[in-house]
Amino acid sequence: MAPNPMRILLLNTLRAASAGMLPLVLIGCAMTPTQTVPQSEATQSEATPMLVTTHRDHDDLLTAGLGRSGLLGAVPALADPAAPTAAELRKRAIYASWRGIVDLVGTVTAIPVVPGREFASLRTVAGARFPHRVLAQIPDNFNADTPCLIVTASSGSRGIYGAIGSVGDYALRRGCAVVYTDKGAGTDWFNPRTGQGTAVDGTVSDAAANVFRPVATASDLVAIKHAHSQDLPEADWGQHVLQAAQFGLDALNQAFPDHGGFDRRNTRVVAFGLSNGAAAVLRAGEQDQDGLLDAVVAAAPNVQIAEQPALFDYALEAAILQPCALLQGDAPAFLPDAAWKPKAEQRCRSLRQLGWISGDDIAAQAASATERLNAFGFSAEAMHWAGMNLAFDLWRSVLAAYAQTYARAGVDAPVCDYRFAVLDASGQPRAVTPAEQALWWSDASGLAPSAGVQIIDGLATGDDPNLPGLLCLHRLRHEGMREAQGLVLQQSLQSIRATARPKVPTLIVHGEQDALIPIAFTSAPYVAAARTRGVANLAFWRVPNAQHFDAFLALPVMAGKAKPLLPEAHQAMDAMRAYLDGGAFPTDR
């Protein structure tokens, strides 16, 4: 299938409307030679050596020397597009990560230069086939006498720098060290045709040097780690964060060998995450048997308890019904009418024919689709910015990949025939060029479509081509218990549930107009369940008029109508750190 024309149109609109910014849903000058240092005895059996790089003199920790003006400018160029250096890839990865998450136009008006060192490695949780990345950034102004370490996980399925703008910025501005994990997802994609993947430094590699190397038949398909690792990384998100926290302490001990030792008793460790990263830190707070964490702050967490639908469940309902429902009411569509209304009307007709909705005309059918979504649990607030998810094809992007991971499917056994590849002019998979593959690690968002890799919908047909694949997923979810893939999918969805029993002080922040991770399916029931179970030291901040993507606030359609979430999350961190310093525990808002 050819690239989505609606998405292309929206991306062109974004480029024109937001100071030259590249697609917001995707995505000094040289690093010192890499040093290899040994690990602590506690982690030797599960880790690769640390790779240590220094970032000073026009190559800092926060922006790789780009500064705010560089982040707002064109994507960093490469001297040799077919063979970029590790330093060039790092700069592009940081560029893409800032641009995909943060409102650089209106919210972030200045970014400090933060020199320091990076410590990179891999960790593997028990039973996993493949490792997750960990990366510690230690600023030069780190105070070893009053040490603070902030641990985080990338939002979405992003690579290791995925939280640099949301969490790294907060930590490094305040002289804290920060340690990241990509939580087993990320952008270490694999090319089955050539057997090439990605090395620890982000460059293209072969064989044993690959971070991710699945078993796959040689083909022009692309193996996406979150989709095809067969590890179900989401079930281990909490362990990823706890391993990252321990790695951060190990990195501090390597950075300051004469200090006498950093550990959980003398170093403040706070976990702070956004979206999927927020769910990961919540799970870490539930699983922290050893008291490694002092507190958790979670912003817009994609977290589910047993009584609530998972993201996969409400994404399915939304992907099928929201195109039709968008025809009712005055929610922004994010696209010109000609680009979305005919498709939305066709979806109404398709669903009416299948008996999903009622009504003899489009208006009645749209009202019926809205009623069904409301009955499922979508509030008016969660529906207000739904046009964003449809315009960017976010629901299918999530579903196509998550279906593979929940079914533990390999590249050669796609669920509902959703595959991923670079496409030729006729919409068919073609061989990936070296220059294209070289940018997967730095430029991709962790899911397709991004970095030139598209979704192939093998079931697409008819006047409403996206619907058959979605209906296949819906049937597998609700009627597929007798099929191998369906049974594994059901079991996986049970294994990712949170307990709502945090062991550490926890503060959750969530926008009431979040259309991707609605508060009614996630934070609100989590908090209610935790309080029913007698959990103390838990606060909940609901943020009116805030949605999921601060980066989208630069769009004219959202100007002055939505509130940024990240400043509220940073205030929550300030409040939690003040509590740890002896102040009062934060109250609900």
UniProtKB/TrEMBL annotation:
It comes from the Bacteria. GO terms for cellular component: extracellular space. InterPro entries: AB_hydrolase_fold, OHBut_olig_hydro_put. This is Hydrogenase. The keyword Hydrolase applies. GO terms for biological process: butyrate metabolic process. Pfam families: 3HBOH. It comes from Ahniella affigens. The keyword Ribonucleoprotein does not apply.
